[in-house]
Amino acid sequence: MSDSSTETATPSPEILKKINPAKLDEMPLVLNKRSLHWITDKICGIVESKTPSWWWWCFIFALSIASFTGMGLLVLVSSGVGEWGNNNPVNWGWAIVNFVFWIGIGHAGTLISAILCLLKQKWRTSINRGSEAMTVFAVMCAGIFPLFHVGRVWLAWWLFPIPNSNNIWPQFKSPLEWDVFAVSTYFTVSILFWYMGMIPDLSVLRDRATKVWRKYFYGFLSMGWNNSNTHWRNFEMAYLLLAGLSTPLVLSVHTIVSFDFAIANLPGWHTTIFPPYFVAGAIFSGFGMVLTLLLPVRAVFGLHDLINQKHIDNMCKITLATGSLVGYAYSMEFFIAWYGANSYEGFAFINRAFGNYWWAYWIMISCNVICPQLFWFKAIRENTPLVWIISIFVNVGMWFERFVIANTTLSRDFLPSSWGYYSPTVVDIFTFFGTFGFFSVLFLLFLRFLPLMPLAEVKSVTPMADPHAGKH
Amino acid sequence: MSMNTSNGNGASGSRYWKSLDDLAETPAFRSWVEREFPEGASLIDGVQRRNFMKVMAASFGLAGFGMSGCRRPEQAIMPYGKSPEEVIPGIPNYYSTSLPSSFGHVPLIVESHQSRPTKVEGNPSYSHSGGGTDVHSQASVLSLYDPDRAQGAYASSTSGAVGEKVVTWEKTTKSDAEKILESLLSPDRLSKGKVAVLAESSSSPSREKLAAKLRSKGIIWSEYDPIDASTGSKALGKALSTNPLRPLPRLKKAKRILSLDCDFLGIREPDHLRLTREFTKGRKVLSAADTKKMNRLYSVESDLTLTGAAADHRLRLSSSQMVAFASAIAAEVLSLTNKSSGSDIKVLKGRATKAGFDLSWCKETAIDLVAHKGESLVIAGNHLPDEAHVLTYVINQALGANGKTVNYVELPTDDSSNISDLVKTIEAEEVGTLIFLGGNPVYTSQWSWSSLVKKVDLTIRFGSSIDETSELSNFHIGASNYLESWGDGTTWDLSAHLPVQPLIEPLFETYSELDFLSILLGEKTSSHSLVQETFKELSDGSSFDDFLRIGLLPREISFVSPVYEISKLPEFKSNLPASPTPESLEVLLVPDYHSWDGRYANNGWMLECPDPISKLTWDNAILVSPVLAGELEQKHKDLNLLPKPTMLNKNGEVAPDTAIFALGKQDAPVVKLSLANGSSIEGPLHVQPGLADYTLIATLGMGRKTVGRVGDSTGYDGYPLLGSDSSRIASGVKLSTTKNRQILANVQEHWSMEGRAIVREANAEEYADKEGFASEMGAESHSPLVYGREDKESLAHKSRTTPRGHSTYEHPDHTYEKSDEFGLHQWGMSIDLNLCTGCNACVVACQSENNIPVVGKDQVLRGREMHWIRLDRYFSSTEREGAEIPSDVQVNFQGVACMHCETAPCEQVCPVNATVHDEEGLNAMAYNRCVGTRYCANNCPYKVRRFNFFDWNKRNTDELYLGPLGDENPKLPNLSKNPDVSVRMRGVMEKCTYCVQRIQEAKISTKIKAQRSEKFATGKNGADLEVAEKTKVPDGTIKTACQQVCPADAIEFGDISDPESEVSKLKSNPRDYSVLGYLDTRPRTTFMARIRNPNPQMPDWTDKPYSSREYHDRAHPSHDDHGHEEHGEHSSDANGSSPH
What we know:
The complex is a heterodimer.
Chain A: H1 4-9, H2 14-19, H3 36-48, H4 53-79, H5 94-118, H6 125-149, H7 175-208, H8 212-221, H9 229-262, H10 274-301, H11 309-339, H12 343-354, H13 358-370, H14 378-382, H15 384-411, H16 426-449, H17 455-460
Helix pairs in contact in A: 4-16, 5-6, 5-9, 5-10, 5-15, 6-7, 6-10, 6-16, 7-8, 7-9, 9-10, 10-11, 10-15, 11-12, 12-13, 13-15
Chain B: H1 20-24, H2 27-34, H3 41-44, H4 49-65, E1 93-99, E2 106-113, E3 116-122, H5 135-144, E4 153-159, E5 166-172, H6 174-183, H7 187-190, E6 194-199, H8 205-216, E7 220-223, H9 231-240, E8 245-249, E9 256-260, H10 272-281, E10 296-301, H11 306-310, E11 313-316, H12 322-337, H13 342-353, H14 359-371, E12 376-380, H15 386-398, E13 406-410, H16 419-427, E14 431-437, H17 441-444, H18 449-452, E15 458-463, H19 468-471, E16 475-478, E17 487-490, E18 496-500, H20 513-521, H21 527-538, H22 544-550, E19 553-554, E20 559-560, E21 585-591, H23 604-608, E22 616-617, E23 622-624, H24 626-635, H25 647-650, E24 661-662, E25 665-674, E26 680-687, E27 695-700, E28 729-746, E29 761-763, H26 764-769, H27 795-800, E30 827-832, H28 841-849, H29 857-861, E31 870-876, E32 890-896, H30 905-909, E33 915-917, E34 923-925, H31 935-939, E35 946-947, E36 989-990, H32 996-1018, H33 1027-1030, H34 1041-1045, E37 1051-1055, H35 1062-1067, E38 1072-1073, E39 1085-1088, E40 1090-1092, H36 1106-1115, H37 1123-1136
Parallel strand pairs in B: 6-7, 6-14, 9-10, 9-12, 10-11, 14-15, 15-16, 21-27, 23-26, 29-40, 30-39
Antiparallel strand pairs in B: 1-2, 2-3, 4-5, 4-16, 8-13, 13-20, 17-18, 18-19, 21-28, 22-28, 24-25, 25-26, 25-28, 30-37, 31-32, 33-34, 35-36, 38-39
């Protein structure tokens, strides 16, 4: 996936003439030779045009769904955690499942914006803004659950190391404490990265603004950006630094989230495979979610030239790769459980597949392991509706993965006398369901008010960005 | 003080200055010093309007921001206006008293905080129970604070149509009530008919005196108990032509015991406290040599009881076949001892053959009993027919047991009439006034009381709460709780006269039973003086105060053992009942574990305390054997009674549960059991391994109609099947299905240990060979040693250091962060699984001691019960055929509370440091710091942590989900709270603390004592003494609540850094093991492996207990046949190896 235009600029080595390699027919990243001006108009047009009525319907609908979370939390805080389905062997239940699910979704955004940036993957340009937004919003949804799952939410600030006269500090050995740092760092860096990348585009919106409030609004947000060379040079440097800073976060956050389980001594949790397996799963689910979000966005705004089959293809391939990694991890867990000859561990895994939550396990396997294998076929990758459906399955599967991990182990651990069963209550379901509304509200606002793609970056990958375009 | 004073006369002394400004005496410095608060001075002086407004506005703003308007509710405490004698706030007082019961009084010591009785303990002066108590005594303190108690006297008025009769109660004043009582014996009333009293039985001599007086006045005095414990004594009296003869087994002396359907360890038989204690004394095994002294219990029973669980051999047999079994045993014993002619034996044998039990089982048992002549004993259950008791007597006589392992006491003749005579008199319309004295006969007896009371002019009810009997009465007069009244009584074994001493003035306008009778007699002698009078008659001049102080008066009893003429035996030739069949089932009625005969039906502690065998709370079920359950499933396809095979249990990976659990809730089909005479009951079925195939078990005492808010709609009523002669074996019962299903709150879904080495046990022979068998089981026998090289070190050493084990890594130092070294004591606990009978008394004792809330059925169904200690009950069997539920099982109990792990997994994961280790090895829980992430509970391998999902203590259990909109709990039960233990709010985790309040109390008093004696010895001031810091609490001073209540002494607690302490000795015993030891949590609570003592000659003998067989089969499936030696070698290799 190297850049063909730069290669042709250099004189070809002699050897190439001899072996006469076949030309790879690479798909351009922006189709139909769209002009730079067209791109600006297209992206800014989304924000500048009159608010379409569908947006309002979606927004109101999303807002009303989001209110489910609000109601759920109100009930929860006013009467107690008992409103959820948690019980004695299964003390976490859906709350932590949802937390890990949402945090995992966030990962694709960071991966796309940071790691792919460092690796100079140019195809990232048209999807990175949207997936960064997704990251930020997903982390916001995720944060709700660990915050409200505590029994006394009004004292949740005790998890932060705030100096106090009693000299009581948090317990730094606890993975939950690490979570606090990991997630808050992640959120801070993600939001900075997202916002900073947007500044040049916000200035474009400012400059194009016809209404006074827009001038002020975008003027304020673009922080005096004037497209000067110095600005750009500093911007590029800062962007690279932040990309470097975020890269370890892609790995660290979900590693630390996996420690919530792996540090515990329960069979099925206490495994060293968890960190890489969780990271792979997170990227898997993240790409699933990017596909779920951007395919409709592309259709609605007619962005087929900017998000084209190449992008979809690449995302499908990453999904396939990470899905296979996850599948490998599942089988490796079983192997180690058998190889380790610890009867508790062995039981935990057999119980996962055939025990009280067998259905969840098989939903997980079919969605996460079997479903993405379809992406081996080009025809399927090119069938956009099918890709979208599979991406939804990936999301469902990854939610079930967390459910299986958290609940099968807790419901049947060491002493059979305390085995139990967990099922969610209406409040659990409402609270989780509502977060999708909350997420959609934020995403709709993002679509309406912020530039969906980094203009400069997208332009840089168009054919005419190359000074030698068409001259070879 | 100012440093400047010395300035000027610098001639003498040194001069100090604070700063150069000071030295130079600048005016700025002067003014700085002169102000009282230099830093904030600018804020204070020169108050300006603008500044003032600014500061105030900011303060108001902040006040609003900080929501300081939401304050914690203010709670007023009432100080004593005048301090009462003996009461020191914060220091509890202890008084002796006793709990009245128809099974004899239970001697108690009750703890009282500022005149509130809070905790009941056994009276250790009564050596037969040694300070132990049973579950009902423990729960009785809550009944005192039952908000649904009758709070005075009430008059009833009935309204509404016939079908929907509504009884309303109007409270009357105390003087009105007394007037009514006094008028009952007036000529005016007597003209309307006789006065009759229907009382529950009592062992109180004072009451008997009053009853005698009443009888002498022509009043009909009759007594009724639904759970009649006198059938055995009456039968013996009749057969031996004496007064009723009460058998008192002396289990201490018995080496071989055969129980015929007699649950002498459970709550169904009288004297179970003493019998439990004596039985378990014979099970105490500390070395291989002790196995020879160990007793052996054979149990033949239809229900699976605690006695069956403790038995070494158990035979399932219908209760109706017990006479046949007794005949067979009698035949064997008589022929072995040559006590009888061949013809008698033939007759006896002939009766046995029809019953269809394993005769070789019977024969070998008899051989074993005879081999231990004079040390063996047969006990028969009280519900069995007369013949069983007589045969038991004959067998004991032949075994030489009478007078040795069992004594008989001749009881005084009973002058009261029985209930059927009374009913006849009422039907003859001779009774004008009927007084129900205690009990609840309308609910517990099978007469049609609603029509009977119509034939009586006036009915008066004396009882603790308005119940079914009150509903039919004109007046209800409230009875005081025993903790509010004077009285007396006798223990079942008649060896002690006991006081009932009030600890508190009656909370309401209620009367004690003695006061009530005394007023009725028109004597108005106070109950206090009545009790004193009786005491004077019984004692030879000792003081009443001493009686109260000691809590009992020992009494001489003379034993008799008349000889039964064996030649009379063939008189019992009458037809024996046929074995029950699927068409004609047998039902055994037993007192309900939760409510007993119904009296604890409104006691939340009892209702939530799981039945020890079925583990059901809040409801009772009809227990059915797996065989019958299978047949019922065949017949009724939609019954859904047995769990379906799943991938897991079909492969034998997991044993099936005994019930259908839908979403973790037991979903039971409701069936109808009907007798030929038309009476029937309806209740949910629960499959119970260990039952006789065609005997169903139903319980008495639940399903009450008029009960308080706690017991409302709990369970079904089994009384309709009770015979009018209180016979509890119903035969010829038909079972029919209904469409209904009922959700049961079962606290233990899964019964199998799954081959995990959780409860470890061995037969006596194996133990004699290898005392350390317990340490060769479990994953830790294959893993590197938990203590590594230090394993050979003493327990005291290990408890005070942090050994690294075999870890490659630096092991974290568990010395408490703030202290340089470990604390003075290191607490630990040892639970002897060989002694624990599973009685559950510890569960309720802990609940009472530690203010553990009741959560209600709905929350138990959601798995949120709060008990800090739970008794895990495991079944194990030799039959393991996938999804089948076995019929013959062995039972194990294991008390599990916080293990206080040295390397506690919960502590490492708490993000806010709310659960931490203290320097004495306690895993402490700081409720105030807990935010409730529940990570600790997840990470606890023993699952002993309990979370306050709701404000249990504040919110009404029915309205938990309404949050602040719900009603608050009634305040009265708050009086039962132990002020030494915090009451936890919602959102915090809690768990066993090793009764830290008791530890602290003991430490403080030890300190004070040490200081005092040191002061006397040295004459120094207290502040100079170091002795207090170094004085250890003497071993045995601290008893945790669970330990104190245990009649079997199965729990030992103490300082493990002291090698001489009892707990250290037990922990050094080779039987000691840690549950899940391989996790290296180093629990401070360890268990003593169980030893069974089966007879190798018996047909059901196996070389290992079932659970051990299962463990070995699963852990070493490949080298099954030559496994054992190899396994031993393997583990000793692991033990002895140096770190690699």
